[in-house]
UniProtKB/TrEMBL annotation:
Protein name: protein-serine/threonine phosphatase
EC supergroup of this enzyme: hydrolase
Species of the source: Durio zibethinus
EC assignment: 3.1.3.16
Catalytically driven reaction(s): O-phospho-L-seryl-[protein] + H2O = L-seryl-[protein] + phosphate; O-phospho-L-threonyl-[protein] + H2O = L-threonyl-[protein] + phosphate
Transmembrane portions of the chain: none
Domain PPM-type phosphatase: start-end pairs: 28-298
Entry keyword set: Hydrolase, Magnesium, Manganese, Metal-binding, Protein phosphatase
Alphabetized SUPFAM superfamilies for the sequence: PP2C-like
Cofactor(s) listed in the protein's UniProt record: Mn(2+); Mg(2+)
PANTHER family: PROTEIN PHOSPHATASE
Length: 429
């Protein structure tokens, strides 16, 4: 008697939930659909956003598709936000090695995001303009979501299955972030409030010189270089039940908590959800700032929309499991957690130290003896560049040939960000 005939004779012994679980754990589950909606209300006209749902890891191969969603909230003008919108994605992709597998590509992404943010900042500085921008940059490849951010825009994840709302960015407002205040002070900046009316302090904490409320941004050439463009990066893998991302500028988050924003639009399709979040923020606070919201649903391909309400009984399990599993994206043991309704954390790093973020690799191009700068990706013979660890500011004990390899220009930027040379390049304004 065949196996099939045996199973036909007996009632099923495996509970349905287990079968579904097994099916969902199967690595061959199809890529999800990505559906999005956008809504915005302008007060100053300094918010910009980017939606690219048709990117390809290998150009010409639709099976390697991924999507990008980003928000840029400009200040002191719009040129930084526009420049970053136009150049950042290219700079990031340029920092990812060619001809690698999907898994390797996802592992290379956090480092490429750091290189791309820093390169874009250096390029913008060279234009001699003083505006700046926050960046919240989201890459979705299959069930894996990677978020890089500087500033105070925010990306939240509403894990539909578990009903858990979690933050994928950190807040780089000096007022909210004590670690960043300490870093800025240690790098030569001053942090304090504005002094008016005979010494009364008003408003949020700002850094001086410059008076910016943020500790990280792209641009802001007129502010000390301790305001760095190095992003906080977080990479998670959704369960095969999918989830919803809400990416928005501070106009939303000054009015709504993450939970309020998520709950205000559950059960609605993404385009309506984005409109409703903006409306909800406006209702509670009025239009005080530019307000931009992107809602991105990552949906199983056999399901047309996200389920309207989360399954409450999974809350406890999901909250418990959504913890720090690994700081290392290469850790394979996290795979065993890909059960129903559980978000795996694959990678998280927020250090403002460039060398820590780029790793120690010494990528040498095909031509022997030519190194590639880990930030700007320009090939150079070693004599013309030095490693991040060389120079007069390091103790003799440090290894001068330990990576990452940086060209002269990028090494100067690194030193400036760490307060090791007078901030600010010469700006022709
Ligand atoms: Zn370089």
């Amino acid at each position: 008697m065949s196996q099939a005939e045996v199973s036909r004779m007996k009632p099923p012994l495996v509970p349905l939930a287990t079968l579904i679980g097994r099916e969902l754990r199967n690595e061959k589950v199809e890529k999800p659909f990505v559906k999005f909606g956008q809504a915005a209300l302008a007060k100053k006209g300094e918010d910009y956003f980017l939606v690219k749902s048709d990117c390809q890891r290998i150009p010409g191969n639709p099976a390697t598709s991924f999507s990008v969603f980003a928000i840029f909230d400009g200040h002191n003008g719009i040129s930084a936000a526009i420049f970053v919108k136009e150049n950042l994605l290219g700079n990031i992709l340029n920092a990812i090695p060619q001809r690698i597998s999907r898994e390797e590509w996802l592992q290379a992404l956090p480092r490429a995001l750091v290189a791309g943010f820093v390169k874009t900042d250096i390029e913008f500085q060279q234009r001699g303009e003083t505006s700046g921008t926050t960046v919240t940059f989201v890459v979705i490849d299959g069930w894996t979501v990677t978020v890089a951010s500087v500033g105070d825009s925010r990306c939240i994840l509403d894990d539909t299955q578990g009903g858990v709302v979690s933050l994928l960015t950190v807040d780089h407002r000096l007022e909210e972030n004590v670690e960043e205040r300490e870093r800025v002070t240690a790098s030569g900046g001053e942090v304090g409030r504005l002094n008016v009316f005979g010494g009364n302090e008003v408003g949020p904490l700002r850094c001086w010189p410059g008076g910016l409320c943020l500790s990280r941004s792209i641009g802001d050439t007129d502010v000390g270089e301790f305001i760095v463009p190095i992003p906080h990066v977080k990479q998670v893998k959704l369960s095969n039940a999918g989830g919803r991302l809400i990416i928005a500028s501070d106009g939303i988050w000054d009015a709504l908590s993450s939970d309020m924003a998520a709950k205000s639009c559950r059960g609605l399709p993404a385009d309506l959800a984005a409109k409703l979040v903006v409306k909800e923020a406006l209702r509670s606070r009025g239009l005080k700032d530019d307000t931009t919201c992107l809602v991105v649903d990552i949906i199983p391909s056999d399901q047309p929309v996200l389920p309207p309400t989360p399954r409450k009984k999974q809350n406890a399990l999901s909250s418990f499991l959504f913890g720090k599993i690994s700081q290392n994206s290469t850790n394979k043991t996290t795979n065993k957690l890909s059960a129903v309704g559980v978000v795996e954390e694959l990678f998280e790093e927020g250090s403002a130290m460039l060398a820590e973020r780029l790793g120690k690799d010494f990528p040498m191009s095909a031509n022997s003896g030519i190194f590639k700068c880990a930030v700007c990706q320009i090939d150079q013979p070693p004599a013309e560049g030095i490693t991040a660890n060389s120079g007069p500011f390091f103790s003799p004990a440090s290894k001068p040939w330990e990576g990452p390899f940086l060209c002269n220009k990028c090494r100067k930027k690194k030193d400036a960000m760490e307060g090791k040379r007078p901030s600010r390049p010469t700006v022709a304004t």
